[in-house]
Amino acid sequence: MTLKKIGGYQVVKPLGSGGMGDVYFAVSATADRVALKVIKQHLIEAPTVRERFATEVESLKLVYGSRVARLEDADAFADPAWLAVEYVPGATLRQHVDAHGPLPVALAAMAGAMLADGLAKVHQVKLLHRDLKPQNIILGPDGPKVIDFGLAVLVERDDYLTEPGALIGTPAYMSPEQVRGERDLTPAVDIYGLGATLVFALTGHGLYPPTNSWNLLLRISEPGDLPDLSGVPEELIGLLGAMLAFDPTARPSLDVARTRLLEVATAVSGKDVVDLRREVCELTYHGDTEVLIPPDLSDPQRDPEGTTVVEEENAPVPETTPTKVDPELPTKTQADVTWLVDKVRRQYARRSTL
Length: 354
Known about the structure:
The protein is an alpha+beta fold. The chain is built from ten helices and eleven strands.
């Protein structure tokens, strides 16, 4: 199998495409799986593109926590420029809802609280996401994770890489202040994005009927044109309505939103957060979406600790030389702990602090 290498990573297959780049599943020489984002070639010469990509790299270096896909490596000034982040197996929230329908109220509230926790970590380092939407949330084996900080910007930056009045974000999930092209955005912009995302998770529809981008932006910028919250459970109408307030100062803080989401989740279900978290993972993570390393991949190299990276099903068992057993000594049964080794490896890969 001959595949292209970028930055020491071997590209295996495409995962998707966004406004700034294409995303590929790739593998390092020691079998680390990553999502490799490569900037689109036709954008390279555009003003500020490499600088924005470099900003994404610097932004990801600051972000931490289990709800955000961690940075692995990057080169913003290579040709092509690229960025590798932790590969999170699972479908996006958009894909899950489209395929399986809206989430139950308790689990949607629990997932929302987990995402609020992740955004709080982002805001702690003076960073905004600015493009929170169902397509940028991966429902992994340990719950939802936020991805794609390509539009992130430091709250207290002294310089700006976008032109005055430029619109940054996805129209269907943009806050009114983003539509107005305001520069001095606050964490309230991500509160709005989270609220819009939760409306979709609970109902399967957006805040406004599908239309062209221009009409959609006009509706969002009109204070009297309220978002469509039909289908949102009564328990969350008040909170989501506040999170989607036209005036950013009227929106609740992340702490308030997270607290209220947890209250709803536990009250509706009668369960504690441990059980709710487990149920979120069981409902939303689908193992068949996971991309595995092809068995015929000549690279990556074998793990230096000696275990194979991928085991083929029904693979022939290598012949071994029988070992003589002393009949006077008691025999011992050796337990198969390969499953434990694999589990520890997966946990280690998800925790950069270990």
